[in-house]
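#struct-help
A.M.: can someone run this one for me? Single chain, 618 residues.
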Amino acid sequence: MTLFDLSLKNIRRNMKSYSLYIGSTVFSILIYFTFATLKYSEDIGGMAETSKQIKAVMSASTFVLMIFVAVFILYSNSFFMKKRKREVALYSLLGVRKKSIGFLLFFENMVIGLLSLVIGVVLGFLLSRVLLTILLKLMGLDIVAGFAFSMNALMNTSIVFIIIFLFTSLMGYRIIYQFKLIDLFHAEKKGEEVPKARVLTAIAGVSALAAAYYIALEDILESRVWDTLGLATPILIIALTVIGSYLLFHSVLVYVLSFLKGNPRWAWRGLHMMTTSQLLYRIRGNAKTLTIITVLSATTITAGGAVFGVYYNAEKSVQEHSPYTFMWEGQKQDINASIIESEVSFNSKTVRIALGSYEMEYAVIDEKTFEKLAKNIAWSDVQELRQQDEVFVIDAFYDERWSEKLDVVTINGADYPVAAFYDKALFNVGTLGGTALVVPSKLYDEIDSEEKLIQGVQVSDYKKQVALSDKLASATEDFSSATADYKGAIESSGALLFVGSFLGLVFLVATGSIIFFKMMTEAEEDKAKYAILHKIGVSNKDMKGTIRGQVGVIFAVPLLLGLIHGGVALAAASHLIMMDIFVPVIIWMMAYTMIYAIYYFVTVLSFIKIIRREYLEG
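D.P.: on it. Structure tokens below:
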């Protein structure tokens, strides 16, 4: 039997252990191959500006995915190598040369990697049309996805992952030279000392997180930290969050577990004492894993929630700045009357208003035009000019953090107090801008400025009027279109949502896999203890309860902290971009938690299966 044959036999024998690792790797390859396929897709290549946008997004995404998958595969391999050290020691004890053992491990890793690559590419090819259809649907494009194989995508994917698998295989080859025989035999038995709770470390962890949250939620314009550090502030926030998370798991969690262990009412109920002791015993190793899981969860939740929030609010954002479907300067155009819901014609002038050291241009309309436009778009808070020396100000881009709110405006050398201020668009900002003045009819007539004739039209089913929008754009001046704005917004945010969702899924799969590998390693180490508990009469119900509790802490704590991190980051982002993303963020978090929970149940069932096999065989 050759070394290659032996490696194939080992893989078949350990297929159950490798199944989740292979599944996670296959999923990562599938997504990578899909992104590469989309980058070279002819369907997307024919969409001009959209093509450039998608290719740029896909190129950046494949790079991020490549780095992450490489780290994930290296991390996963470290678990398998620890599990295989005893087996490697047996080969060495039987007289097999280190070079041959190294080649055996090398072959195994390469076979698993190439198997995953083949499966991932085949599934990627079969699912590429489905995923492309999803992308086009999210982007609102009415295009039928093709079914074509991309040789460029295949070459790109193969080169990247073969290099990754070669590197991890060489690591497996070298492991036999890094340890003594006695170390390999006792690799799985090396535990950790029960950590002592340190007050200063616990305080430092809580303080780091509190500082990170405080800086993130501060108003950028008033924050001394942002003013001092500038663009380096986000790096400081991330660093404080990571350090605080690690110290929280390393010390604060120790305090909580130590308190529970010292509480007789809790500790002596069922197997709580054992669960607490197990977690305390491995807390240092778990602290690193939990920190990684927390950071990955927070990153996925923040990025995905932000992108989904923008996509969710795309239509609302368009309507806020383009209340009319179409608006242009000039005469009426020929539009099918059956689709017109309302239309309006009005005149407008332009004035420049001094604002300190600079001037700003404002569109000017009279009070009758204001009433007509406001009624047409169903404004509910419309006021009337009570005096002839008053004006209204409209600023669709007003933000109290950095915008100046006018109290008085000077027109033709005279000052006019501002009787009302509106921070929303009365007409399409693409045609007349976002700032306007409403003045009495007499003052409007006295303004010496060229008068423009403006047309505004609202049509039914405006999202599907792309052809009409293109026709009007070529025939008019200063044309603005809610249809075109929505199309551009949904295409860009749809592409980002597609990438963010599938990258998030890869991160989530890797996150769940890391915890699964960690818990399966601990299950192998603890199975003898559970076998003893079974022999002394501990019920299956109690043993399952302690397993669910032990696995539950490892899953729930980083998830909860990740949700908090992500929530704070998204709250800061929402405040910065002045967009309400509460609903989409909750939806995103719930979806993430549900998929995460599936991994929890799979891990618990696998843990119980290992324990049951041990005491049943014993």
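A.M.: thanks! The first strand starts at residue 326 and ends at 329.
D.P.: also worth noting: Strands lie at 326-329, 340-355, 358-366, 391-395, 408-411, 414-422, 435-439, 452-459, 477-481.
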